[in-house]
């Protein structure tokens, strides 16, 4: 029996891949992807949704338990109104076209962010998709929509402050766990790795508290081009990182 040498190269790095329990993704570059092809920005967003669908499948296949994607930030309100409406409709269309598939694939969807400024029909849709997938036990897909890390911390602070004002919590009882419990992401492990596409190297208000010890991987591809090869490259880079969480390497003297 002959062994194709290409298959050895293929299998070796995958065997040593470390799979993050939580992958965060700042999906950046839809507009530039479109511009580079002489297309409208909205076409970049449509391709971006395809890349997201593909990533969900990859996470399921490779056993990533939690995936958070940044799909609309609280700062994105400064974009042209047409584009905002388009992105909002994209979320509606994504839910309409993919809900059954997500349910079939045992995906639990959580949409984190502020409900302020969202149309009631969109809020109903968000509540509906969360309710219909709440009992699913597979991949947790967290969509950060109308989300800002600072706003999340403000919201958490308000919630804690009202507990204090009501006399149910003493200020000295406030710990990191109190804040954790008041965040949108409560119960979800912090991201092991955060990827940003399009060559930008910023966190842009994404999961600020939760990113305290995340590994960052910046890739040059625009988001619509993020495919399985790029995904595996990210896992390989992550697998080679040594995480110390403020301590020292276990093997160090
Ligand atoms: C980043 O590209 C994309 C966004 C800010 C929003 C659109 C998100 C998606 C298409 C993913 C899926 C969305 C939903 C709602 C499920 P950019 O517009 O910032 O690109 P640029 O930096 O090149 O202008």
From TrEMBL:
Catalytic residues (positions): 28, 76 (proton acceptor)
Organism this protein belongs to: Devosia yakushimensis
Domain of life: Bacteria
InterPro entries: UPP_synth-like (IPR001441), UPP_synth-like_CS (IPR018520), UPP_synth-like_sf (IPR036424)
Cofactor annotation comment: Binds 2 magnesium ions per subunit.
Subunit structure: Homodimer.
UniProt cross-references to CDD domains, sorted A to Z: Cis_IPPS
Protein name: Isoprenyl transferase
PANTHER family in the cross-refs: DEHYDRODOLICHYL DIPHOSPHATE SYNTHASE 2 (PTHR10291:SF0), DEHYDRODOLICHYL DIPHOSPHATE SYNTHASE FAMILY MEMBER (PTHR10291)
UniProt xrefs under Pfam families: Prenyltransf (PF01255)
General function of this protein: Catalyzes the condensation of isopentenyl diphosphate (IPP) with allylic pyrophosphates generating different type of terpenoids.
Enzyme Commission number(s): 2.5.1.-
Positions of substrate binding: 29-33, 41, 45, 73-75, 77, 79, 196, 202-204
Cofactors demanded by this protein: Mg(2+)
Key words, A-Z: Magnesium, Metal-binding, Transferase
GO molecular function, one term: transferase activity
Binding site for Mg(2+): 28, 215
Family affiliation: Belongs to the UPP synthase family.
């Amino acid at each position: 029996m002959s062994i194709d040498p290409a298959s050895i190269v293929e299998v070796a790095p995958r065997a040593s891949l470390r799979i993050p329990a939580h992958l965060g993704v700042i999906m950046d570059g839809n507009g530039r992807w479109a511009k580079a092809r002489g297309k409208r920005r909205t076409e970049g967003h449509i391709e971006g949704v395809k890349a997201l669908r593909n990533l969900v499948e990859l996470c399921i296949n490779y056993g990533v338990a939690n995936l958070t994607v940044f799909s609309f930030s609280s700062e994105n309100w400064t974009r042209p109104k047409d584009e905002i409406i388009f992105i909002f409709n994209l979320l509606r269309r994504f839910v309409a076209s993919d809900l059954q598939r997500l349910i079939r694939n045992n995906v639990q969807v959580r949409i984190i962010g502020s409900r302020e400024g969202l149309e009631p029909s969109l809020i109903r849709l968000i509540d509906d998709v969360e309710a219909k997938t709440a009992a699913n036990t597979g991949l947790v897909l967290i969509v950060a929509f109308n989300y800002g890390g600072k706003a999340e911390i403000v919201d958490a602070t308000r919630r804690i402050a009202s507990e204090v004002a009501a006399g149910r919590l003493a200020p000295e009882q406030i710990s990191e766990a109190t804040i954790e419990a008041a965040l949108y992401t409560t119960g979800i492990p912090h991201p092991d790795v955060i990827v940003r596409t399009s060559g930008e190297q910023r966190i842009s208000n994404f999961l600020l508290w939760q990113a305290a010890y995340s590994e960052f991987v910046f890739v040059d591809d625009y988001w619509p081009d993020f495919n399985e090869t790029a995904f595996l490259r990210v896992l390989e880079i992550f697998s080679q990182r040594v995480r110390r969480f403020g301590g020292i390497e276990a093997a160090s003297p």
